[in-house]
């Protein structure tokens, strides 16, 4: 792509604005649900869990479809679709009168949006191979910095203006993201119309081989996303429990989310660059162990200030886990299958996101909020053998010779990537 760096900068800023919009309103949904009339403590936890699980449920189903569509019709159009659909969904969330309607909109959000997956596909497809770690790590920095600003501003706005107003502001921020992509990125030629050298006897085997090569990694991404999101839905309720009141709690939650996002921002930059020189699996082992350690003091916190250092450390580690898994996938994926395989990666992550709040919600409703953090610490430790297994399995599959030799295999580089098609 011509002017790759300029286009990347536009994608970065658009993703920053998009995540800022989502973080401006969605983290405070546990309090919005109570404002909609749910007051029983156990019922609040269940509805919060359903709210958190609804979007990844439909995202898991839709991600491969949108990923395949991006390979066929272009990456830019998918980013536009994700952003402009998000504008409508966020705007309508601020108008609902029942928690059931809010859940329906969350289901639509997962089916129609997915701005992060769309931007990751575009960056992974066009970033030079030697810069893929830095590019995806920096994109994760956009995610966390957007979340930081959105959470801080959203917490303040929620306290001053109310939860309904923040959804309108959130929709406006995502609208700016969509307009930035619309006017700031060059039009793509539809991928289906590109004239590429055909090799009928190699196309299907190459596609199958590419998928099999990353299949263990997709399984790891499901497990990692489950563990990373395990306490996220319950965290605002932990802050509310420590604070002792619903009044003003959004300020504390927003500040805590902002601190967490700073940690993720630093992790994306530092560990993303490190992953260009050190095996991503090695980094993943260490950050998973450290994240488990940082979970424990959160479950023991008796004052809000005690959450900040523990949350910072945990989010730095989990942010690094997300960055290195994306870089690992980018390095293992041939360019011509970036869209569909990153779409499946979106499904893999979403499956974990579905299960995490449901399980933690049941634990929170049955035993209280704090046991969620002790279980989460154990789950992070259990990620380590899964990471080791994935590394070994991926190497074994990569060592298997191609099923059908031919021109496509001759053109394939040693790193598994395929030369970019001619425009």
List keywords for this structure.
mainly alpha
In whole angstroms, the N-to-C terminal distance is: 9 Å
**CATH homologous superfamily - what is it?**
MFS general substrate transporter like domains
If you compute it from the alpha carbons, what radius of gyration comes out, rounded to the nearest whole angstrom? 21 Å
Average pLDDT confidence is: 82
Order of helices and strands: HHHHHHHHHHHHHHHH
CATH class: Mainly Alpha
Low-confidence stretches at least 5 residues in length (pLDDT < 50)? 192-205, 403-423
How many strand segments?
0
Which CATH architecture? Up-down Bundle
The CATH topology name reads: Growth Hormone, Chain: A
Q: Can you tell me the number of structural domains?
A: 1
Please state the structural category: mainly alpha
Task: Please work out how many helical segments DSSP would assign.
Answer: 16
What fraction of residues sit in β-strands?
A: under 5%
- Please bin the fraction of helical residues: over 70%
Shape: globular
Query: Biggest sheet, open or closed, and with what strands and sense?
Result: none
